[in-house]
Amino acid sequence: MSMIPYAFSYRRPKSLAEAEAFFAASPESRFLAGGQTLIPTMKMRLAMPPELIDISGLADLKFIRAEAGQIVIGAGVKHADVATAPEVRKAIPALAELVGMIGDPAVRHMGTLGGSIANNDPAADYPGALVGLGATVKTTRAEYAADEFFTGMFSTALADGEIVTSVSFPVPKMAAYAKFPNPASRYAMAGVFVAMFAEGVRVAVTGAGSCVFRVPAMEKALAVSFAPAAVAGISVSPEDLNSDIHASAEYRAHLVGVMAGRAVATALSR
Amino acid sequence: MTAVSMTVNGKAVSADVEDRTLLVYFLREHLQLTGTHIGCDTSQCGACTVHLDGKAVKSCTIFVGQADGANVTTIEGLARDGVLHPVQEAFRENHGLQCGFCTPGMIMTAVDMIRRKPNLDREIIRHELEGNICRCTGYHNIVSAIEDAANRMKESAKDNAA
């Protein structure tokens, strides 16, 4: 029988406490959420954990709550459920739209919020929404502002064995996400999330650099005048952006400006 | 080894399998349900699409343990009493296949999309097919088949309601 991948053991804990205990007993193990990135990675043998701890069945991680001024989403909620949740679509339509652009319909039926942000792929969509909205990530051990949570390419503030439990998204006055997808993989070559709050404007860019980042010059300009023209003259330096067979750093820098303008226009059109 | 049990096409099945077994291999090699195809093995092509608790998923990207206790439907489970499912019938009539390799995944995706999106048009269908690749590039007739199936199913739902 053909066998992909290598042999490992699979465990399904009944609670977060049990998941943590499993990890403590096997510190090289990995948590499995939807598996839509981890499983392909294991098939390529780029990751070879000896044990998988499947936390996808934990009911504690599956909820969506509309609270005063924020939407709180459990880490185990699947993309398809966030994209279609009436409370998300009503309060933060930009978030529902962003999640509806992740992967494809079958991937969205398995992939989860917690899995996506714990992986922090530089071209993933979710980090754009978390940083763009100034979200708060809650884990089994601490709470992190999104700005501090995403620390670099495929790296986060999470310590070994720490599990994301939920994310609180503040409800903005207006917001939108514009994404230029890679034509083959559909990952973001540049995705820009723009959100306007009473306190100011946030602009987060994913896909273009090694990790999600903010553009303070655009945030300041949009706080003065929330219009596509406000960002038209602001260029992002290509110096730290990704350059690969799909696009040069200069092209990605250009895309950031174009996507920011489109996101502002979309936010205004609602 | 891990003991799994689930319902596949309405029948209860259980087996002891290696933990690393992907759902698609369980279906094809343990249950001999070879209608579900392995195309790319990299989660991109969608030939392995099945329904897990009623939702389209890529069975090459799920370990069998994740499907323990679930209700799985494969392409073999769509026809009823020898009568093709309306989506299968529409693929046949619209010639929605060329070599046929992607067809099981296309049909399972189409059934799921029609369930989720009551008002499909050709643009939405093309967008929803993002995770299914036809290397014959036979998309035009695939889109026609899904559009036709969606219309038939809407009509028959109306007839049943009347």
Give the key terms.
heterodimer; A: 270 residues; alpha+beta; Uridine Diphospho-n-acetylenolpyruvylglucosamine Reductase, domain 2; Uridine Diphospho-n-acetylenolpyruvylglucosamine Reductase, domain 3; Enolase-like, domain 1; 3 domains; five-stranded antiparallel sheet; four-stranded antiparallel sheet; 34% helix; 24% strand; globular; B: 162 residues; Ubiquitin-like (UB roll); DNA polymerase, domain 1; 2 domains; five-stranded mixed sheet; 5 helices; 5 strands; 15% strand
Folded structure, characterized:
The complex is a heterodimer of chains A (270) and B (162). Chain A is of the alpha+beta class and 270 residues long. Chain A has 3 domains: 9-54, Uridine Diphospho-n-acetylenolpyruvylglucosamine Reductase, domain 2 (2-Layer Sandwich); 59-170, Uridine Diphospho-n-acetylenolpyruvylglucosamine Reductase, domain 3, CATH 3.30.465; 174-269, 2-Layer Sandwich (Enolase-like, domain 1), CATH 3.30.390.50. Chain A is 34% helix and 24% strand. Chain A is built from 12 helices and 14 strands. Chain A has helices at 16-25, 38-43, 79-84, 86-91, 93-99, 105-108, 113-119, 126-133, 146-149, 216-224, 228-232, 249-269; strands at residues 9-11, 30-32, 51-54, 64-67, 70-74, 136-139, 143-145, 150-152, 155-156, 164-170, 174-181, 188-197, 200-206, 213-214. Chain A is globular. The mean pLDDT of chain A is 96. Chain B has 162 residues and is an alpha+beta fold. Chain B folds into 2 domains: 2-77, Ubiquitin-like (UB roll), CATH 3.10.20.30; 86-161, DNA polymerase, domain 1 (Orthogonal Bundle). Helices cover 37% and strands 15% of the residues of chain B. Chain B has 5 helices and 5 strands. In chain B, helix 2 (86-93) crosses helix 5 (139-161) and helix 3 packs across helix 5 (139-161). Chain B is globular and about 45 Å long. Chain B starts with a strand and ends with a helix.
